[in-house]
Amino acid sequence: MAGGSLTITVPSYAMLQQVAQRVTCWAGGVGDADTRRIQIVTSYPVQSIRIPEEIFAANGALVLEPGGADLLSGYVAGTAITFNAGNGTTAFQNPNTCAADNAAAPVITSVTMNVGGNPLAIGLVYANDTGAGTVNISWGDGTVTNGAAEAATVNHTYPGRPASYTVRVTDASVTTIWTETTVFLP
């Protein structure tokens, strides 16, 4: 390998934590030699994680959410690529154990902003693992929707802006399995 890298940029510290959890587990967990080579770069307002290409081959595909795209697919050795996680989703993983891969975690497909022309309203499209049942949605503003359908589009209106909110979709029957996304209302 010739010194290339993957840089994942995120717009908030909260999202940096989510992405760092996934990357840490992908790289072998806390304390692994590959994990120690990953760099966290924080420079307001953008934070990023830089992963050197020397560890790509040993760790395989890197996805930030169940069923998501492999960020390393088609990588050309020696190049520096950047992925912007923006309003993306990341499945939770405990970086100290990495045992719960969350392959069956709910998936947030998309977040639509400005629903119905209301700058405080979003539309959340999600699906739980097929046959896993209902989900609970924590909207990040103190409100929760319990027992939501296994797969649906749900709208929510926030109390104000500018703000960022962490939306969590949790399997209602296994509350240790969830997926989060950070929503930014400018």
What's the helix and strand layout?
Layout: E1 5-10, H1 13-26, E2 39-43, E3 46-52, H2 56-59, E4 80-84, E5 89-91, E6 107-113, E7 121-127, E8 135-138, E9 144-148, E10 151-157, E11 163-171, E12 178-185
Commentary on this structure:
There is one protein chain. With 186 residues, the chain is mainly beta. The protein folds into two domains: 5-91, no CATH class; 107-185, Sandwich (Immunoglobulin-like). It has helices spanning 13-26, 56-59, and strands at 5-10, 39-43, 46-52, 80-84, 89-91, 107-113, 121-127, 135-138, 144-148, 151-157, 163-171, 178-185. β11 (163-171) and β12 form a beta hairpin.
**What strand order characterises the main sheet?**
5-12-11-8-9
Residue-averaged pLDDT: 82
User: Which parts are unreliable, with pLDDT below 50 for 5 consecutive residues or more?
Assistant: none
The dominant shape is globular
Q: Could you tell me how far the N terminus lies from the C terminus, measured between alpha carbons in angstroms? A: 41 Å
Q: What is the share of helical residues?
A: under 10%
Instruction: Kindly name the structural category.
Output: mainly beta
- Radius of gyration, whole Å: 17 Å
Order of helices and strands: EHEEHEEEEEEEEE
Q: Give the DSSP E fraction (strand runs of 2 or more residues).
A: 35-45%
Number of helical stretches of at least 4 residues: 2
Major β-sheet profile:
5 strands, antiparallel
Number of strands: 12
Oligomer: single chain
- The structural domain count equals 2
